Amino acid sequence: MNRRTFLLSAPFLLQALAAPRALRVGVEACPYCFMTILDARYAAQAVNPQGKAFFYDDPACLLDQLNGWGGPSPTAKEVYLADFAESTRTAPRWVAAEKAVLYHNPKVRTPMGSGLLAFGSREALEKYLKKRPERAGGRVLTWAQALREGERRPWVPADVLAPAKAP
Fold it and tell me: What is the pTM for the complete model shown?
């Protein structure tokens, strides 16, 4: 391989090397709400063009930060969501955000109260809802739909991040 061929193939090599980074549960803090990530099943991550990973405790925090609702807007080169069905509290199983199936039901409790869960496939979501029928009745979204919806209003309920009132 000569130098020119190598330089032309470098972007493809970097794309092929894209992979989610390891999450340290109980150590990493969400850059949007500053909460420590205590349950990997709800986690999300964005990787910037320099390769630095930012971890979020709820997919809604990542959506809101990408839409400019708080904190510096990161440039995300890669975005991953924890597959709720395949992850455990201590170990996420990452799925690329554009391949994930998002489920929104305000009755579902999530770290930031968004009611957003991510699944690796529609079948995994349906299997989950069969096991937990009390959580049925929500909406199914793609990552792109959730991003567009987040442009109009933040996913994290406003009362979660509002400062406490003085007594």
Answer: 0.84
